[in-house]
Design goal:
The chain is of the alpha/beta class. The protein is 30% helix and 26% strand. The protein has two domains: 2-145 and 314-345, Alpha-Beta Complex (Quinone Oxidoreductase, Chain A, domain 1), CATH 3.90.180.10; 152-290, 3-Layer(aba) Sandwich (Rossmann fold). The strands form three sheets. Strands 3, 5, 6, 7, 8, 15 and 16 form a seven-stranded mixed sheet that branches.
Length: 346
């Protein structure tokens, strides 16, 4: 038997005893050693989630040890340290054939949730495409960043920054800070606009050259524009990454980018949100927009290489470590603006 956390209502977590998973052909049962909190789980905790009907297991950023393997598994054995993501494409649909595996027709239907538990079962398609042996030099907590880092790598691939570019990251949450770390590793100069002095201090520790504490709205975007022009000889940013998922953040991204620049709309606003766009600015200033979603297997592999090779240090993003039974308290702290990401240790 094992313990697993269930979100049974907004703001309420229950722990239930379940049979330990028995892997079928090609499957791997993982003894979770570290699971990370993330924004999707926090939103579900606050108000529920349309894709996560309650009661539901939740959590999808994790690493651990192989507890059991099913018939046909050749790459992993019981006791191996393992790191994986919670989804993988089918490899057969139109989008997979077009190398847009992040948009695979079945990728959302076949994803797994339930990392806030003592064990989680990896189905065959994930084991075959998006699971890796964890190096001994990499902590379980750092290995659990495989999924969020893969998302960021996909976004930055679409953004296509050049070494020496000036990029503005809007929002210093977990994803914003991961963007800072990755962009700095690529030789990009980074400015961060966010609320909260502590978040900006962390951004600077990860390599950001500039940090501005500005609450972006339509009244303050001109202030932010002046700050960005001040570090770019009046041009505006070469690249802007919007990580707040707020309409005002999207509008600010369009205002802060230079002529010929690119804006990554990484954060997703609530469904049916709309924004007014100055079509002349978009057209005559040749502004490019990209809207990254999820990740592809090659993004996961690149994330693995960066983490395993020590090219990116993600540990500064971990604000604390808690036992599984403390999960509800962890989300209450996040809801009150404490910390960035917490490691849950079942």
């Amino acid at each position: 038997m094992m313990q697993a956390a269930f979100l049974v209502a907004p703001g309420r977590v229950e722990f239930r005893s379940l049979p330990s998973p028995v892997p079928g052909a090609g499957e791997v049962a993982v003894r979770v050693r570290a699971a990370l909190t993330d924004g999707t789980d926090l939103k579900a905790f606050r108000r529920g989630h349309p894709k996560m009907p309650m009661p539901t297991r939740f959590g999808h950023e994790f690493s651990g040890d192989v507890a059991a393997t099913g018939p046909g598994v050749a790459n992993f054995a019981v006791g191996d340290a393992i790191m994986a993501v919670h989804s993988a494409p089918c490899g057969r649909c139109h989008w997979c054939r077009a190398e847009q595996e992040n948009l695979c027709a079945t990728i959302m239907e076949t994803k797994i949730l339930g990392a806030y538990a003592e064990q989680i079962l990896l189905p065959r398609h994930i084991v075959e495409r998006n699971a890796f042996s964890k190096p001994a030099s990499l902590s379980y907590e750092a290995a659990a960043f495989l999924e969020p880092l893969a998302c960021v790598i996909h976004g930055v691939c679409l953004l296509a920054p050049r070494e020496g570019d000036v990029a503005v990251v809007i929002g210093a949450g977990g994803f914003g800070l991961l963007h800072v770390a990755l962009l700095r590793a690529l030789g990009v100069r980074v400015a961060v606009i966010s609320r909260g002095a502590a978040r900006l201090e962390l951004a600077r520790a990860l390599g950001a050259e500039w940090g501005y504490e500005v609450t972006l709205d339509r009244g303050t975007v001109s202030e932010a524009r002046a700050l960005v022009e001040g570090i770019t000889d009046g041009r505006g940013a070469d690249r802007v990454i919007e990580c707040t998922g707020q309409v005002d953040g999207w509008l600010a991204g369009l205002a802060l980018v230079r002529r010929g620049g690119t804006v990554s709309l990484f954060g997703g606003p609530p469904p049916r949100s709309t924004i007014p766009i100055d079509t002349s600015r978009l057209h005559y200033d040749q502004i490019s927009l990209v809207s990254p979603f999820h990740f592809r297997p090659r993004d996961v592999r690149r994330a693995y290489e960066l983490l395993a090779g020590g090219a990116i240090d993600v540990t500064p993003l971990i604000s604390g470590r808690n036992e599984l039974r403390e999960l509800e308290r962890v989300f209450e702290r996040l809801e009150h603006g404490e910390g960035v990401k917490f490691a849950v240790l079942p």
